[in-house]
Amino acid sequence: MVSLVGTAVGAGVLFLPINAGMGGIWPLALATLLIAPMTYFSHRALSRFVCASPNAGDDITAVARASFGRGPGMAITVLYFLAIYPIVLIYGVSITNTVDSLLVHQLGMASPPRALLSFVLIALIMAVMVAGQRIMLAVTGWLVYPLILILFGTSLYLIPSWDLGALTAGPAPGVGEVLMSLWLVIPVLVFAFNHSPAISQFSLALQRRYGPAAATRASAVLARTTGLLVVFTMFFVWSCVLALGPDGMAAAKEANLPVLSHLANVHDAPLISALGPIVAILAIVSSFFGHYLGTAEGAAGIVRSTVDPDGTRISDRVLRLGTAAFIFVTTWLVAIANPGVLGLIETVAGPVIAIILYLMPMYAIRRLPALAPYRGALSNVFVTIAGLVAVSGIVYGVVRTVTGA
């Protein structure tokens, strides 16, 4: 549960208040009601897909190839990689911007060369990953508990700054306007609570320990994970939105900073100035680890499927180091380029995550005999609708951006 929470609480959570708050209070209220079942049912279905494999020990890419055949399985493997890899790139941008903001605004230093700063930061995070999964899990466990406590403490600390009037000022929005705002915020909502990159390895770990009972055990762990995430995250989102208001959210989006870094720059409170960047850094680093595992898993699956299907030409060690080098170089280059983070979430990461996390497991439940016991549940209909809404909202946002509408 610690690893899953650490994977979810990252840049998405820190950028979620920006999009959620700009739409007003009613879309945010509806999002708060919907996110718990959306998160739990979708991740449970993905875990069931992995646990249902007849070959114990197969990760999600191997299960996809075995279940759907080589061609469709390869397509799912590529989509899985594309759902997670852009998020690693996002974290490269976010960690660089957050530390640069800390150095300039809180420590009063000159902004260092972006290429050098991003190189050092990404190299430090990658060093933990290359050192081994056990060390990474230990570091994640160390980061997650203080991160949750600091998020909760920050949420409480912001209560005196709440201004409900800023969100309710002006004429009341119509039903259509509220639904439109909710439609457009769902992609960031999906991204913020997404911990699918860790689901494959999480399911395999439970499979090794509990055997046929792995899916049942996974459901219990995922229920607690969802509850923890929704309570702490949505309280944090509401607190930030009420403290900054729509204008503050727009300024944070323009600065391309996590909401806490923006709060530290504009909020006249020493505690927020000190804790804001620290929380942002802890969240990004802890989430980077889980997304790196999924990215490396997807990249290895693509290589094995196309270049070395028998696993005889490329050793696991060479493949692991080659994958690490590829992720490091590309993340560094994107961090230097500094694209808009919310734009990457909405147009690149969001749609593929929705397909892999929401729609693919529902298709698998309808098609695969091993998943037949899970057919006919209302939760399947809910997850399918949520996935279609997320994908359609993302497509609409991309078209609107391209056309300038």
Structural class determined from secondary elements: mainly alpha
Q: Approximately what portion of the residues adopt beta-strand conformation?
A: under 5%
**What is the 3D form?**
globular
In round numbers, the mean pLDDT is: 81
Helix content: over 70%
Low-confidence stretches: none
Query: How do the helices and strands follow one another from N- to C-terminus?
Result: HHHHHHHHHHHHHHHH
**If you compute it from the alpha carbons, what radius of gyration comes out, rounded to the nearest whole angstrom?**
21 Å
Alpha plus pi helix count: 16
CATH architecture type: Up-down Bundle
At the fold tier of CATH, the topology name is: Amino acid/polyamine transporter I
Query: CATH H level: which superfamily?
Result: Amino acid/polyamine transporter I
Main location: membrane
InterPro entries: Amino_acid_transport_2
GO biological process, one term: amino acid transmembrane transport
Subcellular location: Cell inner membrane
Protein architecture, described:
It is a multi-pass membrane protein. With 405 residues, the protein is mainly α. The chain has a single domain, classed as Up-down Bundle (Amino acid/polyamine transporter I). Helix content is 82%, strand content 0%. It is built from 16 helices and no strands. α3 (25-51) crosses α10, α7 packs across α11 and α15 runs antiparallel to α16 (378-403).
